[in-house]
Amino acid sequence: MSRHTTKRGLGERAARAKRVVAYLKKTYPQPKSELIYQTPFQFVVSVILSAQCTDKVVNRVTATLFKKYKTPADFAKANPRIFEKEIASIPFFRNKTKAIIAAAKDVVKLHGGKVPRTERELVALHGVGYKTAHVILGELYSMWEGIPTDTHVKRFALRFGLSTHTDLKKISKDLEALVPKKDWKYVNNGLVLYGRYICKANRHDCTAHPLTKIYPKAGKVWPKAK
What we know:
elongated, about 60% helix, about 230 residues, mainly alpha
């Protein structure tokens, strides 16, 4: 591929990303998670639980769970076997139990019971990676220092030719290079809601959907779930 072709391809990709983000910004102007929580650490717990699980299922489980556990100290003192039973309907509940209790202990011991405000400190917690850290920073502190990539973001990044990677962090970095930082906050939330309510993951005719109209080729691209 020639240098000229590469630059042209990148230019087209950036222009497409700009149109996609313009739609998301207009349609979903207030980035807000659909996970239900009352305390900052409850949100951290919800995000950990939401890995490979729907927000609807997480909210159903936490509706009861969060009446018992509110602060990091509450979660840190949880009995692992009891906690596992309390979240047993969540995929990978044993691993998530270990991660949540360990993360709670870290927050209590290292951060005085307050959820950290930096990516570096957050990814040091058990169960928290790049995606989770930036979801937390955005939701709790309105800090958008990265674009979190989950299954929805990955799907649309591939469908709209905004990335060729399958690794979530690499997709995030591709998107961050294409989208101006001032608009990063609209990407994850917007694509999650768009994928959840408008253009779902199952193969279907989406030619009339707003984002497919921007890039009709997307109507024929259906990446595998994993």
